[in-house]
Structure formats: structure tokens, C-alpha cells
Write a structure and sequence with these properties.
Elements (H helix, E strand, L loop, with lengths): L8 H30 L8 E2 H7 L5 H9 L3 E3 L2 E2 L6 E2 L5 E3 L2 E2 L8 E6 L28 E3 L6 E8 L2 H8 L7 E8 L4 H5 L5 E3 L2 E3 L2 E9 L2 E8 L6 H8 L3 E10 L2 E2 L8 E3 L2 H16 L65 H4 L1
Parallel strand pairs: 9-15
Antiparallel strand pairs: 1-4, 2-3, 2-5, 5-6, 7-9, 7-17, 8-9, 10-14, 10-15, 11-12, 13-14, 15-16
Helix pairs in contact: 2-3, 4-7
């Protein structure tokens, strides 16, 4: 009778193999844990130099890579040859001979862009840019996304390159709303078909919410809402429906609204409001910094260049309905009554009407 406790050679080999596999897994786990323990914490791990430059509000990541290729960036006293470089707080970075500014507090501004401005820092064709039109007291900022030269409305500006990149990503899912005037005619049924997306010349556009507001002569007014914001998306999609866009106004970007912000005006979003609207997930994704105190106002040499200011005295502007700028009806001059001759003080004479 065979002993049940006695193992066969095959069983012994299988047991030995199993024990060896378990030992290897244990050793691998120990090495991984040791390596993880030796790694610096997330605050000391460093980041790519282009990302560091963008977070400092100096430029975008793409511009940083171009600056490095042009030899404008030094790392620890040596000209940097490639952007494939990780830096920490201990490294000394210089751009055009000047030390890289420290991390600034994350800030966001709403800007009402007018038609005729290009959303770029430098235009090779010499056209006027958005950044040349900003107030002198605004720090160096980046745009979150872009608006075409003929598109007007809300443009978000920030001093944090990480935040700009995070909010531009389609995965963020922020809704962008537009008001559109286009030449031609369309039905609500045609617009409803955009909810499932549309392919135009090989480019697939995601779901679009479109509403027919009204027909005005040979034009139609529409309300558009989408989450992707691909290049010339509204114009291309409506072109596929036989419409030609002749006016495009962005009304909102995520939770931020154009509201009553007048053309050319800039308004900063309060820090607490910005934190609430971003939420913990987006703040972590963007690496936003709300702990650093606000930086001092830039010197005259550091301020954004603007057009020469006019010597004409400023006149008080009347407050108008914020939606009136979207109207297309031509309005005549305000009033026909002639004014009296100005006196030395610049005010009309009280007896002007009596002399008539």
C-alpha cells in the first residue's frame, strides 16, 4: 500500500517552481517599494522646464520649447539645448539673461475681445493683437484658447500656463456658448441633427446644441453650444448646412459669462470664486497655486505694450443695454436739437435758446 504523504517527483518539482515564483514576486515587490521610498516627494520631484516656464506666466509650453531651440534659455549657467529636461527648485533658470520669475498666484481675467484682433503674441502680418490692446497694469498673461480675428466676445486670460492648458483640453468638458449671425436660411430640424455630431471634409465634430433664434432679412440668428471648440468649428459646421457666418460672439466659457462686460474691458475673477468654479480635480490637474501672495505690479519696462494714448479728454459714456451691441439695426444720431455756443468754461450758454 502506497504512503499518501509521500510526494511524487512531478509534484515536488511543481512545488519547487511555485516557491521560486513566489520568492521572485516578493523580491520584485521589495525592490519596487525601496525604489518608491527613495523617490522624492511630489513637491520635490521636479517638472519639465517648458512646464515650469509656463507656470511662471512667462509663455506657453510651445513658446518655451521654441525659446529653448533659439538658445534664449540657460540652465545653471549653460545654454540649454533641448526642452527634454526636468528641473527642480534648486536649478537656476535664466531667460534672455534674466532669472525666471518665481511661481505666481494663479489668476484669471475675463476680456471682451473686439473683432479685428488676432489672439497671438506676435503676428507676422503686422496685424494688431489682443495683447497689444490690454491695459498697462495687467501682468504678463496667456489666452485660454483662441478666437479668430473676426470673432468677438469672451476670451479668458490667465498668468498660469498650467491652468491655460487644462482648460483648453476637450476632456475638461466645459461648455462654450456662442451667438451667431449667418447669411442664409435653416430650420430647427436641421439644427437638431447636430446633436449627434457631424463630419465635414473628413473632420468629425462632436455634439452641438443649436437653436434658431430668429430670421432677420436674409440672415438668421442662432445660439450655439459645444464642448470641443475645434478650429473654425462653428463656421465649418454651418457652412455644411449652407450658411455663411458673418458675425460670431462668444457668450460664455464654462461657468464664466460675458455678461455686461463692455468691448475692450478686462475684469478679474476673484480668487475664491475661481477656486470654487475650478473645483479640486481641475486645480490638481492644472497645478494651480492659490497660496502665493499676489505679485507686485510690473515696472513700466515689464508692462505689456499698448497703443499710444490719445490726448483728447475722456467723455463720460452713457450706460447702454449690454445686449444692444448684438443688434444689427442702424440707429440715427441721438436727438436733433442744436446746442448753444460753448462759453469759456466749455458749457453751453443758458441764453442760447432765448436768442433763437
Amino acid at each position: 500500500m502506497k504512503d499518501k504523504n509521500k510526494s511524487t517527483p512531478a509534484a515536488a518539482a511543481a512545488a519547487a517552481s511555485k516557491a521560486m515564483t513566489a520568492a521572485k514576486a516578493t523580491a520584485t515587490s521589495k525592490r519596487a517599494n525601496a525604489s518608491k521610498a527613495a523617490e522624492p516627494s511630489s513637491s520635490d520631484a521636479g517638472e519639465r522646464i517648458a512646464k515650469r516656464m509656463a507656470r511662471a506666466g512667462l509663455c506657453s509650453r510651445r513658446d518655451a520649447e521654441r525659446w529653448i531651440a533659439d538658445g534664449r534659455v540657460r540652465l545653471n549657467g549653460k545654454v540649454l539645448q533641448t526642452p527634454a529636461c526636468v528641473v527642480t527648485d534648486k536649478d537656476r533658470i535664466e531667460v534672455d539673461g534674466e532669472p525666471l520669475p518665481g511661481k505666481e498666484r494663479t489668476r484669471l481675467w475675463l476680456y471682451h475681445k473686439k473683432s479685428g484682433l488676432v489672439t497671438t503674441s506676435r503676428d507676422p502680418e503686422g496685424r494688431k493683437t489682443v495683447f497689444e490692446s490690454l491695459p498697462d497694469d495687467l501682468p504678463r498673461v496667456l489666452s485660454i484658447g483662441r478666437l479668430d480675428i473676426n470673432t468677438e466676445g469672451l476670451l479668458l486670460l490667465t498668468n498660469d500656463g498650467g491652468l491655460a492648458r487644462a482648460l483648453e483640453l476637450p476632456s475638461t468638458g466645459w461648455l462654450r456658448r456662442y451667438r451667431v449671425r449667418a447669411h442664409g436660411s435653416v430650420t430647427q430640424e436641421q439644427l437638431d441633427g447636430l446633436k449627434d455630431g457631424i463630419a465635414v471634409e473628413g473632420v468629425l465634430y462632436g455634439a452641438i446644441e443649436a437653436e434658431l433664434e430668429r430670421q432677420q432679412g436674409s440672415n438668421v440668428w442662432l445660439n450655439f453650444a459645444m464642448r470641443e471648440g475645434k478650429n473654425r468649428e462653428v463656421k465649418n459646421v454651418l457652412g455644411a448646412l449652407g450658411l455663411e457666418v458673418n458675425r460670431l460672439i462668444r457668450l460664455s466659457y464654462g461657468p464664466f459669462q460675458l455678461g455686461d462686460l463692455e468691448t475692450g474691458q478686462v475684469r478679474e475673477v476673484r480668487g475664491r470664486t475661481l477656486r470654487d468654479q475650478l473645483g479640486a480635480k481641475l486645480i490638481a490637474q492644472a497645478g494651480a497655486n492659490f497660496d502665493t501672495p499676489l505679485a507686485a505690479k510690473p515696472n513700466k519696462s515689464e508692462q505689456v505694450k499698448t497703443e499710444p494714448k490719445s490726448d483728447k479728454p475722456k467723455t463720460k459714456r452713457e450706460r447702454v443695454d449690454p445686449l444692444s451691441r448684438l443688434d444689427t439695426k442702424k440707429r440715427g444720431p441721438q436727438g436733433d436739437r442744436k446746442r448753444g455756443k460753448p462759453t469759456r468754461t466749455g458749457k453751453p450758454s443758458r441764453n442760447a435758446d432765448r436768442r433763437r
